[in-house]
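Hi Y.,

Following your request, here is the sequence exactly as I used it, all 448 residues.
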Amino acid sequence: MSSSAPQDTGHRLWSVDEHLADVLATVRPLEPIELQLLDAQGCVLVEDVTVPVALPPFDNSSMDGYAVRTADVQGASEEFPAVLTVVGDVAAGSGELPTVGPGEAARIMTGAPLPPGAEAVVPVEWTDGGTGGGAASGMIPASAAPEGAGGEVRVHRPAEARAHVRSRGSDVQAGDLALVAGTVLGPPQIALLAAIGRGTVRVRPRPRVVVLSTGSELVQPGEALASGTIYDSNSFALAAAARDAGAIAYRVGAVADDADTLRATIEDQLIRADLLVTTGGVSVGAYDVVKEALSSVGSGDAAAEDVAGGGIDFRKLAMQPGKPQGFGTIGPDHTPLLALPGNPVSSYVSFELFVRPAIRALMGLPESEVGRPSVRAVLKADKALGSPAGRRQFLRGKYDAASGTVSPVGGSGSHLIAALAHADSLMVVPEDVTSVEPGSELEVVLLG
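Below is the corresponding structure, written out as tokens. Let me know if you'd prefer a different format.
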């Protein structure tokens, strides 16, 4: 936004695409920092990571069993087992290793290094386990039978060279590219970084998103409802949605319909916010407090000027639900602020279309990956879906990937929270379409 003071640009209708483009043009990725591995979960890598050491770093056993020379077990069978002298134990983490010579074997545990002279591993189930009896079902614990490291073992099957051996570098080789910049670090990526010895990694941090809902009628869940009050669901929904998008969310809860109180609350929250999200108070009513609080910036109001620092535009968008929207920057650091409508479905749809992409952009993801994926699906319904001319409508739907169909869930009202809870997608009806017949194909935004 280039404006230095809030504006009401409601004299024209903005398209969804125009508004999103303005949001993304203003949001800049957060500066990279070095984080410990677990603290980096969910963050976006800002550098290529190469492998310093091969994985695994040595030949090791994939089974509990015996390390052997293949010639010594060639032709072995139940009737004529190969009888080998056990020269010692090789456990995971072993340092000095016994050498396996002709006619010898070493007890070996999963993950333990293959000892010198050995060419293969025979699973313990292919042996008598050193007991002199029939086929073993498992290794005798070293603590229970320390003498199991010596004596003899009977092997009942032959083994080919490298059988049950994980070769050095079979996962990755030193110098290989482990992860590329732009990767979102999930559990498997954290595991790989730890496996190659990285204790820290350079990433863009997860954005800190502060969510405020406005309205003197709002009561916190768990409290008693008085006449004319409702429970505050928006701040919970949006904080949860922010977390789902990859952010660290702070839910402030409901702020009363008082412009001074809201300005003070926003000012208090700026210190921990990379993005501020408000819900409610952006329309044209007498108590639309967000609009009132931020529209006084530039009018000589000192308190408002302290909170300001950029500019907020209030707009009407050619969409349903979610027509009234506000967006801009605020405070000395020009922190982005998105002001969403107060109706629950309008608020949630607006979040998915505008706030989620802003969060993902702050994380440093490319524009192609900031929004939800969409597919084309065939409408499965009892009757046609109506849509207002000139508005892009977003209707709750249930998507069936197997059949490639989508069915409406609930009506089009912007207050229908129960229907939203049972939907997994949004059906998109374009601005120039006023009716969608069953069997028609339409765009579906996947929310799961």
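The chain has nine helices and 29 strands.

Thanks again,
Q.
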